Amino acid sequence: MHVIRWSVALVMITGALMLLAAVTGLYVPDSWQYSLRMAGGVFFLFALISSGVMSIPSVHRQSQSGITREDWAFVFIICTILLFGISLFFK
Question: Which pTM value belongs to this model?
Fold first, then answer.
C-alpha cells in the first residue's frame, strides 16, 4: 500500500511543481507532453540509481528503512509509467 501512496504523491508533487513553474513564468512549456515525458525519464533514472546503489551490500546493511530497495525502484518505475500515461492525454 505504501508503494501506491508514494507513487501517487510523487506524481502529484511533480505535476504541482510543473504547474507552479508555468504559472509563475519560470518555465513556459512548448509541449506538456514533452515535459511530462522528460519528468518520467528522470524518475526512470532515479529507479536505475536506487536499484544500483542499494544493491551494494554495505549500503543495504546500513539502511534501517521500512521500505526496501526494491520498493523504491518500483515506486520510481510506477511514477515513470504514470507520467508517460498522463502525457498521452496532451497533444
Answer: 0.78
Tens of pLDDT, residue by residue over 38-85, are 999 999 999 888 877 766 766 556 656 666 666 888 899 999 999 999
User: Cα dist. 41→12, 50, 55, 58, 82 in Å?
Assistant: 16, 14, 21, 28, 11
The x, y and z cell numbers of residue 16, run together, are: 504541482
Q: Which three cell numbers stand for residue 55?
A: 544493491
Angle ∠(83,45,63) on CA atoms, nearest 5: 110
DSSP-assigned letter for residue 89? T
How is residue 46 written as a grid cell?
Answer: 532515479
Q: All 3 cell numbers of residue 58?
A: 554495505
